[in-house]
User: Which sequence fits this backbone?
């Protein structure tokens, strides 16, 4: 995998995040806007580029990994609800990464490999 | 977290106010771009060294949420940040629908399936949002999780 492809994926991923965050910024009420915080922005960009470069068969494992990661994302959001109310947004949302790591890592080790 | 503010927010009609975009500073946009690009970079590097499935895990990593939630709290208060995370939980279920659609159908027609997966995300996330909104499940969730009522 060339460095150029990696940086192309990063650039397209960053642009996709900005695109979905525009919808999140403009959306109301806040809970509706929050849906866009969990939009498949990086995933869409990354899967599209991988399909184009390696073909659909090689892209399927990325999507399977993402399915495991999305369970971690749900755990992240639920823990962040608990922690933001108690520790405020910065500490609560960063500490909640632990939930993503625990759930995603656990599922990947148990059924993903 | 203020229950009354949440309730007021929940009664607001659903839509998009594009004039809010003019308030977004270039710095905020740059932060989101950097976090998004970084996680895409990490996913690609992890896939290279540990396999595609391991790299795919990071396609659902909440990289941008801490920055987003912190910005919302700074500008609009903790309750609004909490409400945003609450919507994010429903979006995460939609994210699983996106990944499931892609992993099952991608071999069939990749371009069509990526559109279909995006549609699955939108339908599941928005469907759950409206279900929670009309059924009062948001209120039950708030009472279950929130410290202050």
Assistant:
């Amino acid at each position: 995998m060339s460095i150029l492809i990696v940086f192309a994926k990063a650039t397209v991923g960053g642009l996709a995040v900005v695109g979905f965050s525009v919808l999140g910024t403009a959306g109301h009420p806040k809970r509706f806007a929050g849906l866009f915080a969990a939009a498949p922005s990086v995933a869409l960009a990354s899967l599209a580029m991988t399909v184009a470069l390696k073909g659909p068969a090689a892209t399927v494992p990325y999507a399977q990994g993402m399915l495991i990661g999305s369970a971690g994302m749900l755990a992240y959001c639920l823990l962040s609800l608990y922690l933001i109310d108690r520790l405020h947004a910065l500490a609560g949302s960063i500490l909640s990464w632990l939930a993503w790591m625990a759930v995603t890592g656990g599922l990947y080790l148990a059924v993903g490999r | 977290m203020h229950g009354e503010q949440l309730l007021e927010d929940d009664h607001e009609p659903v839509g998009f106010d594009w004039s809010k975009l003019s308030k977004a500073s270039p710095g905020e946009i740059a932060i989101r771009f950097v976090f998004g690009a970084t996680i895409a970079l990490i996913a690609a590097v992890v896939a290279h060294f540990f396999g595609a499935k391991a790299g795919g895990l990071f396609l659902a990593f909440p990289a941008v949420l801490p920055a987003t939630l912190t910005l919302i709290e700074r500008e609009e208060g903790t309750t609004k940040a909490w409400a945003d995370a609450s919507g994010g939980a429903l979006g995460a279920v939609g994210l699983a629908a996106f990944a499931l659609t892609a992993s099952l159908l991608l071999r069939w027609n990749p371009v069509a399936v990526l559109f279909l997966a995006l549609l699955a995300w939108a339908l599941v996330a928005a469907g759950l949002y409206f279900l929670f909104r009309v059924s009062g499940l948001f209120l039950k969730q708030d009472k279950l999780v929130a410290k202050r009522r």
Q: What stands out?
A: Residues 17 and 40 of chain A are 9 Å apart (CA to CA). The helical segments of chain A are 3-26, 30-34, 41-54, 56-87, 89-95, 97-112.
